[in-house]
Amino acid sequence: MNILLLKVTLMPTVIALVTLAIRKWGSKAGGLIGSMPWVAGPILLFFILEQGKSFGIYSIQGSMTGILALISFCVSYSAFSRNFTWFPTLLISYGLYTATALVFKYLQLNLYVSYAIVMISVVLSLQFYPLPIGPPASTRRLPFDIPIRMAVATVFVLAITALASVLGPNWSGILTPFPIMTTILAIFTHTLQGSSATITTLRGLVIGLLGFTTFLFLQAFLLNQYSVALSFGIAFVVNVLINLAASRVW
């Protein structure tokens, strides 16, 4: 199958299904669902299909840095959403995301240390996560809500995978967990349901990063031994099990 065709059909379908799932099961469950590797998994797959399996494996180290930056984005967006509208909140959060990515890129930590720091960071951030102020606002929906989300996510994925050969595996890995899904969730929830629902959704997403991070971490080992389909399948099951356990704890 043509890879470009796969990109422009797979990603919109995933975004639409996740959006519908969030509407059905609510903000916290929506965050957990959104944290699954719906975007990062296909991006890693496209890296492998276009650049080779070795490129994909080497990109995973950078992905750990990207996840640390993603945690920074979620916490900062949640905190600032209580006082600002979506646009300034997004700009501040992207700034902190970029600063975090640059700091940990400079430190050049190995995969094991990076994985441990991510897992510890998730747990610590949940202990001190910003609290919602007041109940969620009533749900509103924009016309063509789902098509807009689908289009934005597809453009992001096309851009990241197109730049892979220029950026190399490390920076490509850093951009793999770039908050594509998170940005869409944050902006639409903030605009339509208010800060409290946004904080609940993003907190659910951070909880899900325990499983998401493990999914990517396992690829560094599974892809050396098994096919892409089996590697992704094993790690996806582990991801789901971790998310189920984490949702009970938090």
Our count of domains comes out at: 1
N→C terminal distance:
41 Å
* Mean of all residue-level pLDDT scores: 85
Percentage of residues in helical conformation: over 70%
Unreliably modeled segments: none
The biggest beta sheet is recorded as: none
Radius of gyration: 17 Å
Number of separate helices: 11
**Binned strand content:** under 5%
Order of helices and strands: HHHHHHHHHHH
- Gross geometry: globular
- Broad structural category: mainly alpha
Strands, total number? 0
Could you describe the 3D structure shown?
With 250 residues, this protein is an all-alpha fold. It has one domain. The protein has 11 helices and no strands. The chain has helices spanning 3-25, 27-35, 40-51, 53-80, 86-107, 111-127, 145-162, 164-175, 180-193, 195-225, 228-249. The longest helix has 31 residues, at 195-225.
How is this fold's topology laid out?
Layout: H1 3-25, H2 27-35, H3 40-51, H4 53-80, H5 86-107, H6 111-127, H7 145-162, H8 164-175, H9 180-193, H10 195-225, H11 228-249
Helix pairs in contact: 1-2, 1-3, 1-7, 2-10, 3-4, 4-5, 4-6, 4-8, 4-10, 6-10, 9-10, 10-11
Give the tags.
11 helices; 250 residues; 0% strand; membrane; single chain; transmembrane; transmembrane helix; mainly alpha
